[in-house]
């Protein structure tokens, strides 16, 4: 993994390119306003950027990502993706936008009972009309394409194996192949390696970011592991209690300490507690 | 990175297992289609025969009940008959279930014998058992209780033994490790784990037995079915409809109560998990000061407040006590209110072996070629009713599954509709259809299809509700439409359950087809009933063996298919 890191790190400055994701004053509350998951979040992502969102569990990373393809509806604010207002689009128009936005889930969200190839094929549903059931219900051209994507993630020999017989890392690679099959312009990845062990995590991240760079796909990815984030991202956004507390390009100015600050939490009296709650620093 | 290898096939490889499965499915579909065509029913029959059905409904309107007191007493008798029958079934099934569980009994012979007994009781239709017991005890509630009890062993024994085999071994090892004896191991290590499911299964059976008990009167086993038979005989369709409506309402009430109580006992998915029923009831050994007496004989004192030794009277415990005492009260009622006497029951026992002995055919004299034709017709009726019900059930199940239904009101409407359909006992519908369309297999199949439709829709909808939501998000995120999402992420997940339940529907359908003849709706049921009325026991026995072979064959086939599609 170490040998590729430097080699394919893209130039970090994308600011001059047009934004493909624009989030303005996004607020999301659950339970009739009792829980404030996102609090006035504003940022934009230019084309081709590899943007990583970090933060503790419950800081709003998943909620934010799920707003970007309309799996959640905002309480207030606007979300514009590829020029379309995700928060206002409905039905067929929202689905058309989703076909341009790939999503990689922490829990893979593939259908375990069917073959790998069929899971990859489902990435092409946006390009097809009508319901499909079984590998043979997809045109041959699509099946060949899906097989090529499976080979790209190194699982060409598993095409007709049941997906739930694969290991976790392999299942996530099938999910990545499905996302690539979609030919997206943007990829949203929600903690794609959180349920994998460290070594496999590195391999899967490598695969995901490499493929996205090859296909010139913009990436917005949430991550738990700071080292992986620093290694891959061209920009880091830190979330704490639904607010952006860090937004910086990954360069020499971005010290480890500034990043780790995102992982401190506030206790109710406004004091900062370290993540493990051992030392308490009084802020007031 | 795409190698030349990628010219490799993009079709699923052909395997023996896959082709066998495909062949089975094709056979199933062809079987259903051919049977529907041969019997002359199809999904449009309800529409094409609407004139006859409307005419009958016209004659049935308005429903009336001339003697409400009589109907009320008959209804109570019916419920108590079902209750006593279920109690008898549970009483007999528990020991048999333990004997047939592979983690309790190691002796394969004992286990095999217990399993065989379970399978045999399941294959004997309760109506036929009732007919046989009416011979011994004459008309009344008692033959009904015995028939229900004996037939219930089949399902209860199977499900009880499954839940014994599924227990967590941990607590049991803990009990063994503390030096408990063999019986203590069962009462402390196994029973607390299985009692909630035993109660839930028994309640489910009570629900089924109540449905069945409304029909037992058709063969003279007492209860409200006697009234149906009387009104059918005198062509008094208005009263027939009146009594039928009473039955539907009662069945719906029993189902609602039993499913509520089951939900409390089994615990809701999100709530705190199963709790020992014995503990909730506050039963079992209470800790006494004696238990804490030090070995040297010093004065014994409880290390904590005495009140703390008893479970508190919380909502759960109160519900359980009310439930427990009403069960006991009903059991006492069941053996006192109807004309049911233990002495009579025991006096009749010596005759039972003789009757079953008479049932064994000594030679093939009972066989006539038309029995073969009727058996084929029975199988066709089973397949036709299954096919007909599945055509309607799968789409309705989509509307009745909370997670797939297009809107909340659609879901509620679909669920209420199913509940209503499920409360229609199929034999009563058959009586009505025979009256409208004449004798023969056609009305039988239509009636059976309606019953199976309600039953299978519920099973399908429940299993669709159990699928994982993650894969749906995954497919939705690719920009798939609602229909595409359902076909790509919901159906593949629900498939094993849908196939398993379809086979179960076929099994139920075949068994029901064997008794439809009782009301003149075709198949082997007619000679079966005539045979019992005319004391041709060898004929009855021979036909029962044929039915048994048929039911058993379907069971083996469905076990195999289920294993392949998990």
Helix content of chain A: 25-40%
Rounded to the nearest angstrom, the radius of gyration of chain A is 19 Å
How would you name the oligomeric state of the polypeptide chains in this document? heterodimer
Name the overall outline of chain A: globular
Mean residue pLDDT of chain A: 83
Tally of DSSP helical segments of chain B: 23
CATH homologous group name of one domain in chain A? P-loop containing nucleotide triphosphate hydrolases
Strands of the widest sheet of chain A, in order across it, are: 6-7-8-3-9-10
* CATH architecture heading of the largest domain in chain B: Orthogonal Bundle
CATH topology of one domain in chain A: Rossmann fold
The parts of chain B where pLDDT drops under 50 for at least 5 residues are 1-6, 268-295
Strand content of chain B: under 5%
Instruction: Calculate Rg of chain B over CA atoms.
Output: 26 Å
CATH class value of the largest domain in chain B? Mainly Alpha
Structural class, from secondary structure content of chain B? mainly alpha
Textual characterization of the structure:
The complex is a heterodimer of chains A (284) and B (566). By secondary structure, chain A is an alpha/beta fold. Chain A has a domain at 1-96 and 224-284: P-loop containing nucleotide triphosphate hydrolases (Rossmann fold), CATH 3.40.50. Chain A has nine helices and 13 strands. Chain A has helices at 2-8, 61-68, 91-98, 116-121, 140-152, 168-181, 198-214, 226-232, 256-260; strands spanning 19-30, 35-46, 50-54, 76-81, 84-85, 101-104, 186-190, 218-223, 235-240, 243-249, 265-266, 272-273, 280-281. In chain A, the strands form three sheets. Chain A has a six-stranded mixed β-sheet with strand order 6-7-8-3-9-10, sandwiched between helices. In chain A, 45% of the residues are buried. Chain B has helices spanning 16-39, 45-48, 50-60, 68-100, 108-123, 126-137, 141-165, 169-177, 182-216, 225-233, 237-266, 277-281, 315-334, 342-348, 351-359, 369-400, 408-422, 426-437, 441-465, 470-476, 482-516, 525-533, 537-565. In chain B, helix 3 packs across helix 18 (426-437), helix 4 packs antiparallel against helix 9 and helix 19 crosses helix 21. Mean pLDDT of chain B is 81; it is low at 1-6 and 268-295. At the A-B interface, helix 3, strand 6, helix 5 and helix 6 of A face helix 20 and helix 21 of B.
């Amino acid at each position: 993994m170490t040998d590729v890191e430097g080699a394919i790190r893209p130039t970090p400055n994308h600011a001059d390119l047009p934004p493909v994701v624009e989030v303005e004053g996004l607020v999301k509350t659950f339970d009739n306003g009792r829980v404030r998951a996102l609090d006035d979040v504003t940022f934009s992502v230019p084309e081709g950027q590899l943007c990583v969102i970090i933060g503790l569990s419950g800081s709003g990373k998943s909620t934010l990502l799920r707003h970007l393809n309309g799996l959640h509806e905002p309480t207030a604010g606007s979300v514009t993706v590829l020029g379309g207002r995700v928060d206002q689009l409905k039905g067929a128009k929202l689905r058309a936008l989703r076909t341009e936005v790939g999503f990689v889930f922490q829990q893979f969200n593939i259908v375990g009972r069917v073959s790998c190839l069929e899971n990859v094929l489902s990435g092409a549903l946006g390009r097809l009309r009508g319901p499909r059931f079984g590998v043979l219900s997809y045109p041959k051209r699509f099946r060949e394409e899906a097989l090529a994507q499976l080979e790209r993630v190194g699982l060409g020999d598993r095409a007709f194996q049941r997906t739930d017989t694969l290991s976790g890392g392999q299942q996530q690679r099938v999910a990545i192949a499905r996302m690539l099959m979609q030919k997206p312009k943007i990829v949203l990845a929600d903690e794609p390696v959180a349920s994998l062990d460290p070594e496999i995590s590195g391999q899967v991240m490598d695969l995901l970011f490499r493929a996205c760079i090859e296909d010139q796909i913009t990436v917005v990815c949430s991550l738990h592991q700071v080292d992986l984030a620093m290694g891959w991202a061209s920009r880091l956004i830190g979330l704490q209690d639904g607010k952006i507390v860090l937004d910086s390009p990954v360069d020499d100015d971005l010290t480890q300490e500034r990043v780790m600050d995102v992982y401190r939490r506030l206790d109710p009296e406004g004091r900062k507690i370290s993540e493990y709650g051992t030392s308490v620093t009084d802020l007031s | 990175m795409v190698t030349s290898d990628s010219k490799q096939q993009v079709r699923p490889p052909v395997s023996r297992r896959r082709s066998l499965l495909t062949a089975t499915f094709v056979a199933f579909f062809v079987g259903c289609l051919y049977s529907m065509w041969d019997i002359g029913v199809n999904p449009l029959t309800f529409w094409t025969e609407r004139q006859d059905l409307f005419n009958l409904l016209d004659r049935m309107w308005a429903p009336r009940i001339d003697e409400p007191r009589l109907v009320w007493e008959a209804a109570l008798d019916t419920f108590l008959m079902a209750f006593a029958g279920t109690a008898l079934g549970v009483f007999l099934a528990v020991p048999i279930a333990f004997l047939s569980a592979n983690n309790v009994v190691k002796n394969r012979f004992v286990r095999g014998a217990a399993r065989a007994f379970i399978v045999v009781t399941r294959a004997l239709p309760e109506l036929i058992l009732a007919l046989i017991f009416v011979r011994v005890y004459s008309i009344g509630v008692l033959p009904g209780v015995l028939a229900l009890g004996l037939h219930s062993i089949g399902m209860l024994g199977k499900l009880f033994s499954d839940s014994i085999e599924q227990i967590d071994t941990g607590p049991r090892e803990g009990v063994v490790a503390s030096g408990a004896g063999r019986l203590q191991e069962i009462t402390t290590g196994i029973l607390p784990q299985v009692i909630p499911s035993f109660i839930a299964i028994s309640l489910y059976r009570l629900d089924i037995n109540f449905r069945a008990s409304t029909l037992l009167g058709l063969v003279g086993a007492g209860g409200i079915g006697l009234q149906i038979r009387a009104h059918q005989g005198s062509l008094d369709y208005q009263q027939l409809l009146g009594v039928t409506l009473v039955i539907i309402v009662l069945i719906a009430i029993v189902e609602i109560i039993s499913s509520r109580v089951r939900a409390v006992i089994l615990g809701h998915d999100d709530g705190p998990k199963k709790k020992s029923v014995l503990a909730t009831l506050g039963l079992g050994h209470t800790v006494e000061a004696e238990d804490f007496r030090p070995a040297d004989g010093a004065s014994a004192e409880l290390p904590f407040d005495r009140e703390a030794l008893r479970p508190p009277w919380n909502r759960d415990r109160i519900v359980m006590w009310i439930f427990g005492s009403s069960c006991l009260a009903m059991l006492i009622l069941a053996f006192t209110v109807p004309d049911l006497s233990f002495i009579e029951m025991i006096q009749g026992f010596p005759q039972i072996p003789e009757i079953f002995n008479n049932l064994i055919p000594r030679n093939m004299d009972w066989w006539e070629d038309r029995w073969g034709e009727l058996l084929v017709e029975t199988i066709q009726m089973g397949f036709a009713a299954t096919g007909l019900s599945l055509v309607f059930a799968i789409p309705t199940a989509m509307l009745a599954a909370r997670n797939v239904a297009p809107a909340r009101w659609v879901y509620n409407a679909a669920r209420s509709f199913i509940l209503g359909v499920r409360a229609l006992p199929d034999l009563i519908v058959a009586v009505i259809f025979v009256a409208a369309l004449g004798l023969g297999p056609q009305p039988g199949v239509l009636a059976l299809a309606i019953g199976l439709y309600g039953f299978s829709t519920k099973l399908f909808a429940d299993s669709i509700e159990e699928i994982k939501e993650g894969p749906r998000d995954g497919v939705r995120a690719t920009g798939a439409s609602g229909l595409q999402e359902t076909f790509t992420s919901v159906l593949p997940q629900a498939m094993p359950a849908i196939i398993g339940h379809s086979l179960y529907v076929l099994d139920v359908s075949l068994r029901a087809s064997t008794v439809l003849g009782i009301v003149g709706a075709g198949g082997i049921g007619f000679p079966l009933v005539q045979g019992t009325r005319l004391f041709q026991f060898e004929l009855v026995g021979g036909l029962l063996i044929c039915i048994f072979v048929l039911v058993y064959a379907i069971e083996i086939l469905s076990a195999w298919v289920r294993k392949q599609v998990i």
